[in-house]
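User: Before I run my own analysis I want an independent prediction to cross-check against. Here's the chain; please return only the structure tokens and, at the end, one sentence I can use as a sanity check.
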Amino acid sequence: MIVWINGAFGAGKTSAACELIDLIPNSTFYDPELIGGGLRHLLPQKKLAEVTDFQDLPIWRRLVVDTAAALLAELPGVLVVPMTLLRQDYRDEIFGGLASRRIPVRHVLLSPEETILRRRIAHREKSADDPEQAGRTRQWAYEHIEHYRAALDWITADAHTVDTSTLTPRATAERIAEALRTGEARECGIVQTPEPRAETVASGVLLFDEQDRVLLVDPTYKPGWEFPGGVVEPGEAPARAGMREVAEELGLHLGTAPKLLVVDWEAPKPPGYGGLRFLFDGGLLRGEDAGRMLLPGAELRGWRFVTEAEAASLLPPTRYERLRWALRARERSAVLNLEAGVPVGG
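Assistant: Structure tokens:
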């Protein structure tokens, strides 16, 4: 299990985390900021210059998950992680990656009053050995208070909040430990199928509205939009898998098996294994049916009907190419065989 302690810079996350490992048996302190520090030495300056925050590096977010999994394999128990996460898509990516490893996350927010937060930032940096660096760090922390305010809506909906305005680090840790013990700090609801260990088979279903726009969904556990669908289970027919996924994700039950549009072979691209991807035509979804859709909050954040042009800005390139050819197949009443998004054969 992971206890992820979130909050603004200067909220006291690290101090509370250090106290918390004394209160939770078999717990280990894990600071993902060390990964960011390591990447500064590993990546070329040209790559580092592309971002202003190491969290914006996809490799950092991937290594946070991989390192957590490796630590828990070596040191079973609880990882206590003090790390500010203010972007919901980064939270989705990291927590979704942990969920795919079957690692539960308890999300905790430390939330002191802003005047106290500013006072703590000023006091901490004034005691630093390098005044110039301390000034830059202080200014950076102040600037991120606005980002923290903007993120509070989604963080407070997801995390157990502890007001630390009058609490010492030890008292904060005791509050967190009690919330974990009583279940107030609940497991984060993001779910994900286990990461594949070999090539996979997956099925997606295209549903259309009266204007012939296609339905896309926004998963909580990975970046980018997607078609309704998922991995085909052992012994399951691809079309039936698509029907099952539509029912599980949207609460819609297709009366007949959808028609196949494309079969696409996705090349392995580490860390992914690739495999076969099916796209089916699920037909027309009338307005009254769309109004009955029930999204599972743990998996999907939202849905929308889009034109082909709009889909280009929402889907990752490989998924967009698959959609583009599926729409051509639908127009021609044909089935297309693709390899890495490109038609092959006659």
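Sanity check: The chain is about 45% helix and 20% strand.
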